Amino acid sequence: MIAEPDGPEDRLRRFATIWSRAVYPVTSTSSTRPEFEAQLLPLARRLSRALTARAFDAAEGRAVGAALVAAHCTDPEALSRTLDCVDAYLVLYCGGDGHAEDLRARCARLQHAMAAGYAGALRRRTLAEQESIARAALQAQGVVAQALHASEARFRAVFEGAAIGIGMADLDGNILQVNGALLRMFGLTEQALRSRNVREWTHPDDAPQTWRLYEELVRGEREHYHVEKAFYRPDGTVLWTNLTVSLLRDPDGNPQYQLALMEDTTERRLLNLRLRYEATHDALTGLPNRTFFFERLEKALGAGEGQRFGLCYLDLDGFKTVNDSLGHSAGDRLLVEVADRLQACATAPGEMVARLGGDEFVALTTGPDTQRTVDELAGRIMNALLAPISIDGRELTVRGSIGIVEGPAGERSPAEVLRSADITMYRAKSAGGNRFELADPEADARAITRHGLTTALPTALERGEFFIEYQPLVHLGDGSVRGAEALVRWLHPQHGVLGPDRFIPLAEHTGLIVPLGRWVLEESVRQARAWRELNGEQDAGPLRINVNLSPCQLTHPGLVQDTVDILERAGVAPDALCLEVTESALIGADDDLLKPLRRLAEMGVDIALDDFGTGYSNLANLRRLPVSVLKLDRSFTQSMQQFPADPVDLKIVEGIVSLAHSLDLAVTVEGVETGAQAEQLRILGCDTAQGWYYARPGPPERLHQLALVDATG
Predict the structure, then answer these.
(1) Which of 413, 433, 630, 712 is buried most, with the most CB atoms less than 10 Å from its CB?
(2) pLDDT at 487 over 60
């Protein structure tokens, strides 16, 4: 027996352990490292949920960043180590089955939000410290007559010991006092710093109101102000600060001094800029990514009257062939070269190129005359793709299909524009590719109508557009056909034959899955009866029919009665039927959900746990499930198509088979495509198998012929 795979909570705790070990040495906490890890665990859980949530919520990342400051992780190194840890391990331990590129993009955005939350919390903490210092300074000035020596000593301790820079100047801007932190920030000696005047410290990036606020303060019209300000250091580098300037008055209330408190934010600003770049740019090509592109497109569509936009949506023709034949590394190099060429095409003001993902790129142009410029931009792109690209000594010809959308700003949303461009691009691809097409509202409407499968589903069932194909279940011991899985298809009037992945999710969403599933069950049981009649008392025909049940059917109150009625009308014994339920549908199932399955199992209907291994498989939980068959997902056996097979995969399958047999469960394997694979699975003890090695799904007549051949040897 093998060890059970780690669950999500175990992986989450591993991530929290790695995080605590990285950050604990630079914290100011009195907690032990295990206690500190316990503080980080709920933060790790929040990051995990934010990473895999349907919609991205930056507030979660900001809250985690702020919580780090609350946990005394105020050393800048703590933030840097945290972000490195999140970048390296969050997707690895908490990404689940999500798309890697999307998860990496989501992770980058989470890092940006964490840095922002950390910066905000640290800033609030610093401001509180600044206010405390300012109050101490004011108090020291106010009580000088009563306890001059004590107050000066207290002020000097705060002044010299503060971690932030403090300077005092007169109302003319002459610097009178500075502390050590301020000297270190500027890299100057005290004499050099005190020789400067406040008014000399201008910078091109000063906010427009900075010096207006300063003049109001020294005139006594305001007590303090707070701005973000840059200063030049002697070596020419820039020091960015959060600057708070307060007015100090004499005992009569007249303005006397100005007190400046400075927090060095240079590193934090550079970090934010880096994270912002990573969150808005594609890691492979360096182009703006989908997030950045939508920001620009939304801005372009919201421009004023008289402004227009033009968008080119490019998809490379045959890119999958490059990946399949030369490998993903070659495909990546091809994408980088294409990105460089596209970037060279969009150099005019108002033009940009972005990568949406995969081999999809967009080019945007804005201005008053985009009817002309977008056509020129598309032409430059097509010309840029003409020259072959050399990859690993091969000259690859790159072709692309472009959909163009052009129009005035303010009439459509970004999603509508991109949808129209996508439809137009596929129209260009359908016309042979290597060309561009202009968006046509009528063509868009026809494409959207053709994809209206949801509304067509009810009438499709009434018109008899569905049919069933059957794939044999073969016994690995003697090669005999023991059954067949029923697979429903939709013969759509416009789209042709559609597989279940195209319409089953729609049927579940609309509730049509119940009548559709009942029809599939009726047809499959009727076909099982027909096979038995054709074969007489022989065992040549499929003795068992496997029918898939969706999660919606499991919760339907009529499931048991419908199944009983169908079997009785067809005159088929319950043991001739096997209902397949996906593992994900039974994860965490309560007794109410399992009750119908238990009743069916007690009647003699086999229950198969389908796609086993695609979820968080809990082998120990199998005892409480009324299943008699495990169907291993094809992902377990893919490596067995090659020789030698991965020994780890072999051990996993061997362990599952051993445990299943100890629980009196039969094991069926999906996706068998080679004879070597079938033999290996037989040696491992699997009972039955299905896949293209034996037969592709087909009409019942072909399966009957296969069963007869098997029976006659």
Answers:
(1) 630
(2) yes
